[in-house]
Amino acid sequence: MLKPGAAFITTFSRNILRTGIRSVSSLEMSRNPDPVADSVLPTQPKVDDARPDYPWKRAKKVACMLSFSGKDYYGMQRNPGDEIKTIEDELLAALNKSGQIDPTWETAPQKAFFVRASRTDKGVSAARMVVSLKMLQEADTIKKVNSFLPSDIRLQHIVRVTKNFNCQSQADARTYLYLTPTFSFSPVTDVVTEGWRCGPDTITNVNNVFKSFLGVHYYHNYTSGKLPMEPSSQRYIMEFEAGQPFEKMGMEWSVVKVKGQSFMLHQIRKMVGLGVAVARGHTSMETVKNAWGMERIDIPRAPGLGLMLDQIHYDRYNKKFAGDGMHEGLGWEGQFEAVEKFKEDFIFSDIIDTEVKEKSMLTWMGQVLPMHTFTPRHFESEVKESSPIRSAILKVSYDTERERKSIDVEEEGIKKARISGDEEDIIVQTRNGQKEVENVPA
Question: Which of 38, 53, 72, 121 is catalytic?
Answer without folding.
Answer: 121
